[in-house]
Design a protein that fits this description.
Layout: H1 2-11, H2 17-38, H3 41-57, E1 64-71, E2 74-85, E3 90-91, E4 98-99, H4 104-117, H5 143-147, H6 173-181, H7 197-211, H8 215-227, E5 233-234, E6 248-251, E7 254-257, E8 272-274, H9 276-287, H10 294-300, E9 319-323, E10 326-335, E11 338-345, E12 350-356, H11 363-374, H12 390-396, E13 398-402, E14 409-415, E15 418-423, E16 431-432, E17 434-435, E18 440-442, E19 452-458, E20 461-468, E21 472-477
Antiparallel strand pairs: 1-2, 1-12, 2-3, 4-8, 5-8, 6-7, 9-10, 10-11, 11-12, 13-14, 13-21, 14-15, 15-16, 17-18, 18-19, 19-20, 20-21
């Protein structure tokens, strides 16, 4: 309603402006009163808790962030926190535009699925049908293999470009694809899930071949414009973009401006910009069938079945997870200077997106707290993260088998001086461990149920661990 009022101000005779402004203000106040009055007591409590929790904690992860929470189809919380630019002291607002990294893959997948619906592409088509000079290496690699990260194609990040500062150089898609073509497959297509940017890089080229347009042009015309995404675009670092946020890296406890990166190196796997408002509009458009037919959308958010019948945690551009019997659909994004995540919990009809302008991976701790509060489970307990000597962390690395179920195990490993855990059943991967004592660690990535790992040390040797959620489970170190 308000959009049409303010649009009228631009086209109406000037002598009527004062009158129209008065009407606009009256309706605006009515709109705000209705919005506040329409909130439930629980939602008002959630809003208060979210505001306090994020205000107190965001600075541990990023100079600034934007958050949007929607429940039952209505936005109940949207706000910016901290700084969009440290040098100019510019605040983050809900309209602030961030790099979204691999959330780009959702848009790439939907573009491909539009062609599937138009019968210009079939999911079982081999990629050689569209990328003529790409060698199959004796295997059939399908469009569906690319969409589901089951192609066996190697990650392009491992290519030795033999070019200084290659990340700053503009490459055509053909150059990188030609380099990929020279590498062997990692596994038989369809036999394994391996998240890999190369898959979505190739899909971008296929979009160009089928549409006859540049990847970014097709998305602008057939996706962004169709559903009114006014702040979503292909990132062009040289362009002036309204509300663009600056990205930062943390070096020795201080923030530094992130270096230049050519978008040609991420392309259809991670080159988009957006804000929390547009990402929620994107979610609504998919859920409401505005871009894809309902059956196509359901297929996109169904875990892919591998050759051996096992299910992966990925559909067509979307992670589909079930942690602690809570289903979630979404994607994260990680690119120089930025971290992003958007997740939908269908059973609760709850949507959350968090965009940050720092490249610290532990930002998911902040998201976990936002998710817990938004689900009505209150503010998470405040856990510390103590410094533990590197040699002691190293002693915990290894595989641990659960005594009650020897078919299940947990792997502990270290990245950048922090321990992480993977469960063998794939219900928990890349879970960060925060030190509470020298042997007890908290796992903030496990939503809703407080989870800890306590290592068992016997006569100075690590012999096992306790996994605690609602119950305590013991695992023996292999």
């Amino acid at each position: 309603m308000l959009f049409f009022i303010f649009e009228a101000l631009n086209n109406y005779n000037l002598k009527h402006i004062g009158q129209i402004k008065a009407i606009g203000v009256l309706l605006l106040n009515l709109f705000i009163s209705t919005f506040v009055f329409g909130q439930t007591k629980q939602e008002k409590g959630i809003i208060k808790l979210l505001d306090g929790y994020i205000s107190e904690n965001y600075s541990r992860y990023s100079p600034g962030c934007a958050v949007l929470v929607a429940k039952n189809g209505n936005i109940i919380f949207q706000k910016g926190f901290g700084k969009a630019n440290l040098e100019l002291d510019v605040p983050v607002i809900p309209e602030s535009v961030f790099r979204i990294g691999s959330i780009t893959k959702q848009f790439t997948a939907v573009a491909i699925l539009q062609f599937v619906e138009q019968q210009k592409i079939a999911l079982n088509d081999s990629i050689q049908k569209f990328i003529k000079n790409y060698h199959s290496k004796g295997k059939t690699i399908t469009i569906e293999n690319l969409l589901t990260h089951t192609s066996g194609i190697k990650p392009y990040e491992g290519i030795d470009a033999k070019v200084p500062n290659a990340i700053r150089v503009e490459f055509s898609p053909e150059i990188l694809i030609d380099s990929l073509d020279k590498l062997p497959l990692d596994f038989v297509p369809g036999s394994k899930y391996q998240y890999c940017n190369s898959n979505y890089f190739l899909l971008g080229k296929i979009i160009e071949e089928v549409s006859g347009q540049k990847y970014q042009t097709y998305l602008q015309e057939q996706v962004f414009s169709r559903i009114g995404l006014i702040s979503t675009s292909y990132d062009k670092p040289e362009e002036v973009i309204k509300n663009r946020v600056s990205g930062y890296s943390a070096v020795s406890g201080e923030y530094k401006n992130v270096g230049f990166i050519s978008m040609s190196t991420v392309y259809s796997a991670g080159a988009l910009l957006s804000n929390v408002k547009d990402l929620y509009r994107w979610h609504q458009a998919l859920k409401n069938g505005e871009l894809l037919k309902n059956d196509t959308w359901k297929q996109a958010i169904t875990p892919f079945k591998l050759n051996d019948g096992k299910l992966s945690e990925y559909g067509y551009g979307f992670f589909i997870k079930n942690e602690n019997n809570v289903k979630s659909i979404g994607h994260g994004g990680a690119i120089d200077g930025f971290r992003a995540v958007e997740i939908y919990y269908p059973e609760k009809d709850l949507y959350i997106t968090l965009l940050c302008n720092s490249e610290q991976d532990n930002f998911m701790e902040l998201f976990a707290g936002i998710s817990q509060i938004s689900s009505g489970n209150g503010v998470p307990a405040k856990y510390k993260d103590i410094k533990i000597p590197a040699e002691q962390l190293d002693s915990y690395i290894g595989n641990y088998t659960f005594l009650e179920n020897p078919k299940q195990s947990i792997s502990i490993y270290k990245k950048q001086e922090r321990l992480y855990a993977d469960l063998s059943n794939k219900t928990g991967l890349n879970m960060a461990l925060l030190g509470q004592t020298e042997t007890l660690f908290y796992l903030p990535d496990v939503f809703r149920i407080p989870t800890t790992i306590e290592f068992i040390v016997t006569n100075g040797k690590v012999t096992g661990l306790y996994w605690r959620q609602d119950q305590k489970y013991e695992a023996k170190k292999d």
